[in-house]
Amino acid sequence: MGFLGLSSSSSSSSSAGMAVAVAVLGLVLNAAVLCNGGITSAFVRKVEKSFDMPLESDVFRVPPGYNAPQQVHITQGDHVGKGVIVSWVTMDEPGSNAVLYWRENSNRKKQAEGKVVTYTFHNYTSGYIHHCTIGNLKFNTKYYYEVGLEHTMRKFWFVTPPEVGPDVPYTFGLIGDLGQSYDSNKTLTHYELNPVKGKAVLFVGDLSYADNYPNHDNVRWDSWGRFVERSTAYQPWIWTAGNHEIDFAPDIVSIP
């Protein structure tokens, strides 16, 4: 409070100023209490960096079946919480761009069509990356969805957020610098098992650390996508890019 140190020419104005300062300080402290979610766990990841898990680890397993969707993940699809973007990758061929979805306890299924893109980076060529936005969802409702409609179908679910309001509780998980090491697996497992369940994840950057590998090996983006699917397919992860997402390597590619 910068004005706490100001002097006054009269005792009355000084008393009034002090009263205002105390009142404002009380409001600030009260707001801090109201906004404090508390410490939900004693879990602390050790400082020493562990080794990356080998590609044959079970957490990187490719789902069985021809052209099976993998690296399935969702994120919020609009500003109010009634839309979800579903993304996934197919490796053998593009396959279906569609998402089939329906509300819990409902037999009425709807279908949304998405788009597919690919990219190349040095000696790497991606699979077929699908993005599909589904909208006009109901608030605070569980939905099931299926992808891979023409070949190997896979089924997942998510819960939409409640309608926006001044006193609506909503719990976020906060993750950053995850990577794909043995400690990464411990961190993600801890998040999944935490009794205070996050309804969405705010990811604050540095996802796969693929840029730590020779030629920025983008195969490690695929392994990371399969690693986190166990969470990202079931709740929105809202992403922020970090420095490890800037794939600038002028020695191997001219365009970042």
UniProtKB/TrEMBL annotation:
Enzyme class: hydrolase
Matches recorded under SUPFAM superfamilies: Metallo-dependent phosphatases (SSF56300), Purple acid phosphatase, N-terminal domain (SSF49363)
TM ranges: 20-44
Keyword terms, alphabetized: Glycoprotein, Hydrolase, Iron, Membrane, Metal-binding, Signal, Transmembrane, Transmembrane helix, Zinc
Limits of the Calcineurin-like phosphoesterase domain: 171-245
Chain ranges of the Purple acid phosphatase N-terminal domain: 69-160
Enzyme Commission (EC) number: 3.1.3.2
Cofactor: Zn(2+); Fe cation
Signal peptide location: none
Catalytic activity, reaction form: a phosphate monoester + H2O = an alcohol + phosphate
GO MF assignments: acid phosphatase activity; metal ion binding
Similarity-based family: Belongs to the metallophosphoesterase superfamily. Purple acid phosphatase family.
Protein name: Purple acid phosphatase
